[in-house]
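Morning!

This is the sequence you dropped in the shared folder:
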Amino acid sequence: MSIKKTPSKNEILFVWFNRYAGVTIKTPSKTLVIDPVDIKPRNFKNVDAVLITHEHYDHLDQPLVSQIHKLTQCEVVADPTSARRLQNVIPPEKLRAIHPDSEVKFGEVSIKAEKSNHPAATPVSLIITSEDGVKVYHTSDSLPFPEMAAIGKREKLDVVFCTVGIAPSTSPETGVEIARLTKPKVAVPYHTGLTQDLKKFAELLKKDMPKVTCLIPEIGKIYQVSKKV
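The structure's back. Tokens below.
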């Protein structure tokens, strides 16, 4: 889903556009679309990059990624398995594979891949750093894993998207554990179609981490987050 407004310095805008991990992130200079499924390609305009975390049906839709690319001429950055599946629909000069500990840059915006604790072939989670240093951690379908504590300490994250449902073994409790490990400024529950999952996450987070802001997203609504100080 496109975001027409341009964020100011030291902030980003985002939209959660499906009940899975579909998120558009807009920095002052770039627009990134993560895991687009269950949405029309015409809803995306002026996209700089599509990012794919793994090959499951609720994260990778090859025809849709191809259509977005044809409409916007964006680049596509994907985990190795998804990149192989996209080879026949995305030109090689526009397709990049990314794996844990690798990094891709679009101008001054960085996308760094981390591991993902999820039963897919080659899943990644993603740290996106804006040109002003706003840091967003998109955990995709991941369950918490111990290294998230080191990621949080190193990156000083502003926003973390926390999986709370649908994916195997995930729950509001595992989502809160992601927040506990990464210690973001703002924790955003997602990857569920159940309002009670989002509310339960918010209740648990308030009890366990009262200093962390919980932002319960509505699908299609634009949110603004400023750099952590």
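Headline: The chain has one domain: 11-215.

More detail when I'm at my desk.
O.
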